[in-house]
Amino acid sequence: MLDQLGLAETLAQQCFACRQTVNYDKDGNESPGRGWSFMENMKDTMWSFALVLRQKYQEEIFRRALKKEGVELEAPWELKSIEVLQDVNAGGYKVLASLTNPSTGAKRTVKCRYLIGADGGRSSVRQMMNIPFDGSSSPDKWVRVDGVIETNLPKPRTYCAIESPTHGNVLWAALDHGATRIGYAFTAERQKAYEVFDEEAAVKEAIASVKPFSLKFKQVDWWTLYVVGQRIARNFFVNDCIFLAGDACHTHSSGAAQGMNTGMHDAVNLGWKLSLVLQGLAVPDLLHTYESERLPNVHKLINYDKDISRLMTMQLPENWQGDPNADMNEVLGQVMAEAATFSSGLGIYYEPDTYLNLAQSSNICSVRPGERAPDVSLQKPATFEPTRLQTATPNIAEFYIVVFAGDAALTKPLLSAFTSSVPQSHWLFDSKYPVSWLSIFDGPGGPSAYETLGGMPFGRVFYDADHSAHERYGVRPDNGAILVLRPDGWVGTVIELGLGGKAALEKYFQRFLVLDAEPKL
Ligand SMILES: Cc1cc2nc3c(=O)[nH]c(=O)nc-3n(C[C@H](O)[C@H](O)[C@H](O)COP(=O)(O)OP(=O)(O)OC[C@H]3O[C@@H](n4cnc5c(N)ncnc54)[C@H](O)[C@@H]3O)c2cc1C
């Protein structure tokens, strides 16, 4: 997602790209196949590693990118109250937000069409809108300490788990800028030893948690002690104008490192929808899909997190049906492996519906509407430079109609039927609408895309020189297929190549695009 937003490269410049994991048992012996080992099996992406970069560095990169777009964070201003104007229709200026600047005492009222509560786990927006935050906190406390260390642990620059008999499944994570994070469960038993739990105590317990290995902090950058719990807001969108995103609508442990990731999924899901509605290019109803898509995925995350956080503190999952004497570290590895594609984000999908993730055909493509479109290698025409589908489809609040043209010699009749009918829908080619085209030919590139096709191809042309793109998408070279990719990179619909393609495209877009739109922004 961040790649398609043009942010990933800058993150990669500063990150620790972690490709190696290791698991040690309580005696310090390596025990392969447990702990974080699932991270070594991430496939189907260029980004097949954990991009580790602490949040303060990431936020700086995001702020700089926002500034380039003319957006600046006015952090001193605090939201004090919200009034929703009930007599204003959905999509109108329904919100009055009262703000105060605590350092100057200045007050301001902002009238707006939408308000996003991205204001963290104690969200004042959630509280002002009386949205229940369902869930509970556990008695478990976890500690995280970041710093520069010395150790005799054999593989310190990895994502590592240590099966401690006293501190749960200990996290040892190589971080950016040469730092390391140690994370451990701080049990009620060990809490008794401390009247005050300060940095010195956090470090002392960290040293105890990684035994039998040695650990010395040359520098402590940051530490925290926090209570683990799982909560989810009952609604992510209320009154047709107020959204919740990030920790404001879901909090959980940091066990699977998913908090910020999930917040980013929220933001990426909502961003393009809001952009199109604000520009007058999509109907306000589209915004309801934010909750219907994100809420079930957050429920899934919360369920995984309940199991993972219990196992990390050496308790079997609630309602555990298996062997009561099961090895909890082994079960933890299994649960994390099961959640792997969800945690990497590549397996996050939205249920097919009758609106945005529209199933219109079967057996012509193995990737379904509602699934993330896999990244594939492509070849540019003329220079034959390698590129990728995600590079060719940046997230700029625009849909991409991707014509998998198959082997043009075999699909010529289908292509001709499609190319002769679809230009009648002029708006599909009008740059004022958020739709653009790509054509991918199966096979190595020739001197001229026009000649390969026997006419002008749609949009930018790419070649699938080694057939891997058609294979990954399960598209037959003699059949082809048309995929509509949503701006966020998920598949919107899959359509048969041929005469019916025009009607199927119209059917899809007419549900939410405003086709007589005059863009407002
Ligand atoms: C120890 C630890 C480790 C973690 N590790 C990971 C990890 O490895 N990977 C991962 O993905 N996530 C991780 N997370 C989770 C991640 O930090 C959070 O999910 C993320 O910070 C949430 O971002 P947010 O923007 O939703 O909320 P926040 O970061 O809490 O930001 C909310 C902002 O809103 C502001 N605000 C609040 N109220 C108001 C108001 N009334 N008016 C104006 N502004 C207001 C706050 O000042 C704050 O700046 C970890 C969390 C912890 C505690």
Automatic annotation (TrEMBL):
<dbReference type="InterPro" id="IPR036188">
    <property type="entry name" value="FAD/NAD-bd_sf"/>
</dbReference>
<dbReference type="GO" id="GO:0071949">
    <property type="term" value="F:FAD binding"/>
</dbReference>
<dbReference type="InterPro" id="IPR012941">
    <property type="entry name" value="Phe_hydrox_C_dim_dom"/>
</dbReference>
<dbReference type="InterPro" id="IPR038220">
    <property type="entry name" value="PHOX_C_sf"/>
</dbReference>
<feature type="domain" description="Phenol hydroxylase-like C-terminal dimerisation">
    <location>
        <begin position="361"/>
        <end position="514"/>
    </location>
</feature>
<comment type="similarity">
    <text>Belongs to the PheA/TfdB FAD monooxygenase family.</text>
</comment>
<keyword id="KW-0274">FAD</keyword>
<feature type="domain" description="FAD-binding">
    <location>
        <begin position="2"/>
        <end position="302"/>
    </location>
</feature>
<keyword id="KW-0285">Flavoprotein</keyword>
<protein>
    <submittedName>
        <fullName>FAD/NAD(P)-binding domain-containing protein</fullName>
    </submittedName>
</protein>
<keyword id="KW-0560">Oxidoreductase</keyword>
<dbReference type="InterPro" id="IPR002938">
    <property type="entry name" value="FAD-bd"/>
</dbReference>
<dbReference type="Pfam" id="PF07976">
    <property type="entry name" value="Phe_hydrox_dim"/>
</dbReference>
<dbReference type="Pfam" id="PF01494">
    <property type="entry name" value="FAD_binding_3"/>
</dbReference>
<dbReference type="InterPro" id="IPR050641">
    <property type="entry name" value="RIFMO-like"/>
</dbReference>
<dbReference type="InterPro" id="IPR036249">
    <property type="entry name" value="Thioredoxin-like_sf"/>
</dbReference>
<dbReference type="GO" id="GO:0016709">
    <property type="term" value="F:oxidoreductase activity, acting on paired donors, with incorporation or reduction of molecular oxygen, NAD(P)H as one donor, and incorporation of one atom of oxygen"/>
</dbReference>
